[in-house]
Amino acid sequence: MPDLDKNLVQAAAGIPVESKRSIIKKDLIRNRYIYLMLLPVMAYYAIFHYGPMYGLLIAFKDYGIADGVWRSPWVGFTHFHHFFENPYFWRLIRNTALINIYELLFAFPAPILLALLLNELRRIVFKRVVQTISYLPHFISIVVVAGMLVDFVARDGLINNILGLFGMEPIAFLQEPGWFRSIYVSSGIWQGVGWGSIIYLAAMSTIDPTLYDAARIDGAGRWKQTLHVTIPGIMSTIVILFILNIGSMLSVGSEKIILLYNPLTYETADVISTYVYRKGILGADFGYSAAVGLFNSVISFILLTLANTISKRVSEHRLW
Amino acid sequence: MTFKRSLGEHVFSWFNICLMLSLCFVTLYPFIYILFASLSDPTEMARFRGMLFYPQGFSLDAYKAVLENPMVATGYRNTLFYVTAGTVINLIMTTLGAYALSRRNVYFKNSIMLIIVITMVFNGGLIPSFLLVNNLGMLNTPWALLLPGAISSFNLIIMRTAFQGIPVSLEESARIDGANDWIILSRIIIPLSLPVIAVMILWYAVGHWNSYFSALIYMRDRDLFPLQLVLREILISNSTDNMMTGAATGDRLDIGITIKYATIIVSTLPILVLYPFLQKYFVHGVLIGALKE
User: Fold this and answer.
1) Residue B144 touches chain A, beta carbons under 8 Å
2) Which pTM value belongs to this model?
3) Can you tell me which family this protein belongs to (chain B) (predicted)?
């Protein structure tokens, strides 16, 4: 911008305006160290981010390792057709969508609720302790969390032992397709609820305290204050995170599912990303699995755009 | 001015405190259970049913088995290397990028920023990334775990925001004294940004410590496995066999149970011990990230 302003001033004063090329030349000399610093950074992005994007071409090719991306023959949309005609296509879509819908229904509101409850705690020390404890699971590796889960929900595990005290028959939770989503979503809440609440607590701390004073003078109790001051105050944060969640709907992480599922539970547990992992990494069917991955990304992007547009229409909140 | 609280609000306050206490219990109890179980006598633990509130008997055999296991030791060593080397690479790359993109009057700055932000929305996905690493000849080498994630764009933006907050006047006076960008970065910007750099170190290091998926797809050689991959075998695939060679056949199954618990404790201990001290820095980082919106 400063360059442009200078040009305008010069043009108005009748001084010859610098050509674009000479501006760039001067910039490259003045900022030579800056561009030197950017060199490894740009190389990194070119190789490790734009490289795979170029590699996505194999979704439309009959990829052979020896031929490489460029020389492999084109096959058009064949891989996509195969995927759509795959008997598991609808199962993958259903599982991916359902896990996400459950997460939006239960895992998304949980941190908001926790933040609201934490906000009501009067004793600061108690609040701090609760917060510190609730963040802890976020730092435990997914392998350890899955390992603990496998142990706790086993037939002779902690959960079944507790259920046994109430006279219930033991359930082999991880072998039953009907239980997979509940286990997946509830353990996700256990791991993420505290950490997720931080951002809402931060949003609450930016609410103008005089709004609460005003509400109290108008006779609002704590419930009314929450309803009419706190929640509206964090609404934009909620909406933005909600849109981001919709955008990542189809890209359910395969990392945790791979640790928890087995052929017995594929019926409810197999999602698009785990399918890509099995077909591509384990099965070496690269072109096909890249096509499935690309399909997944395209749908995610459409969902993100859609959520953003709808939110823009119905409220003033939006991502872009 | 003070307001009298209604009966309903009193009831709610107590209800809320009880709810928060049960949240703490649900969060902590799994760890407590695993700690007690790992210290229990294997045979008594195998017979035990219900919730543990103290160890059943006492035995350190499981810990002995875990610590003597060569795979756990190798995994620990490898992970320490990946965490250290990976975080150093992350830090150098992120700092260079954040500094360069936080300067004013850099002609291509906005185009480069756009190139970076695009990668936060679009990416090639699992298979093309895997093939790239394969084609670069990095498969089954430590590079596969160190380079592909060298910069987190999100962290780069946080760091850039922090650098932009440093008063320009400091930099200008140094420039008049003849300092170039390297000197400004190392003598002014970095010393003034230690809090945000600490946050970056923590985030990157914990990320490396906990990551298993890259290693799962890129590493074949068991001598290069990070700890998390070893853990996966012990905890998920249930292969405690190679640790039980010393035990008599009858006790083997039993000690297998407590070995799992001891493995969890041994592998999570560094995080559990450091966590209370580091916790506020992590939160600090989230807040920097949230405020830049």
Assistant:
1) no
2) 0.85
3) Belongs to the binding-protein-dependent transport system permease family.
